[in-house]
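URGENT: need a sanity check before tomorrow's submission.

F., can you look over the SCN4B protein record below? I want to be sure the sequence and structure line up before it goes out.
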Amino acid sequence: LPGLHVFAIAFALEVSVGKTNTVMALNNSNVLLPCVFTTCIGFQDLVFKWYFNSTELVADPAPPPLQIYHGKIKNKASEPTVVQHNPRVEFVGSITKKDYNISIVLNSVEFSDAGKYTCHVKNPKEKNAEHNATIFLTVVHKMVETDNTVTLIIVGVVGGLIGLLILFMLIKRVVLFIIKKTQDGKKECLVSSSGNDNTENGLAGSKAEQKAPPKA
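Structure tokens as predicted:
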């Protein structure tokens, strides 16, 4: 069916920024903006671009997205070539793997760099199929330290319970060992006592049998 064929072609090219689409960066640091693309039928003269949309308040209507990187890849045997890029943007990707990496690094980020970054790919070999993925960047003055107090309390409680369980098992084994030894000692005493009684009875019986019957 023609419709099914178009549907399959449209979804042959895919672009992804990873499991999460949010990134937090420290002011004046360098931040990686990840992006990879996949294609089922290969590519030829592929074009990829990065766009930036600021989150700052702007006049209505909003200005068009700012292009910060433009690259091309002739084929899977060629490394990407840069067409145009912002001076603070560095390409760090590679196409040596199945998931072709077209990630960039934004150097010396500022608070004004916070916003939406879009990774856009166009593949002429797939009838100019296009796809994109978006990642949101937040720039902070300092990183917030995670409070692990609750986690430490839980770990401490669980560790204490495990320690008590091990101690209880050790005490139980010691008590059972002592009880077993005590019972074994009692059995030895009973056997020894029983043997002495039988011997005495036997000796007494032997002496009685050796006595001559009284004379009439």
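My own read: Residues 76 and 95 are 7 Å apart (CA to CA). The helical segments are 2-10, 149-210. If you see anything odd, call me.
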